[in-house]
Fold this sequence. Notes:
Layout: H1 57-65, H2 69-72, H3 79-99, H4 104-121, H5 134-155, H6 161-165, H7 179-200, H8 203-214, H9 219-226, H10 230-251
Helix pairs in contact: 3-4, 3-7, 4-5, 7-10, 8-9, 8-10, 9-10
Amino acid sequence: MLCSRIPHVDPASCRSDSFLPGQGATPVPQTIPLRTSRANPAFNRRKRHSEPRQAEGAWGQTLKTRSSLIQRVRDRQDAESWREFVALYEPLLLRYVISRGLADADARDVVQEIFITLLRSMPSFRLDRQRGRFRSWLWSITIHAIVDSHRRRQAAGRAESGWRERRIPDPSPVANPDSDWLTAYQRRVLEFVLPQVRGQAQRRAWTCFEQHVLKGRPAIDVGLEVGLSAAAVRVSAARILAKVRQRCAEYME
């Protein structure tokens, strides 16, 4: 979120029950497997199969030339990167702020303030893994904005009673993000990445991944529907899964 300077993202994308666009509304899972399954050896080694290998040229070039989003938004004039940044983080921030006791309208104001802070701070931001990750820094900014909002509302005499009973994490620099934030962050990254990967994947390969990995259906059943052997379904799904992991890693800073 940043008023006229940062493009608006459709609020519908902020719902926790988001779905992948396109065929059949597939629910976005909380997580995806981080390692291949020993039960499916095709996930662990490349095998010959009936599914032609997908051309990797455009995809590989995209990954090689893509610099960190966090580095790119240090340039305030990079409108494309800021649109991507807002599209990724606005739903995450809005959900989290609402979960901390603010009404929808107040939460949107707080998220606007967070983005204003980020717009001012990002040019001088340095990603230093020894001092902490970007997601921890963003959490600290978010918690400070939530606390400041509640204090202003209390001073104005319109604080909700639920605020007094709700525990807000310590926003001090040494505090660590709470588990709700970390879970929401990971889910949002996955939610953001899946449509990107789907848009660049072959339709049959995506179906293998969606049905076998996301929905957990047996590879043999999926293969009967798409005209592949069970081994080929596993290999196709594994390739898409590797791309999802690689793209997620770009945003998990």
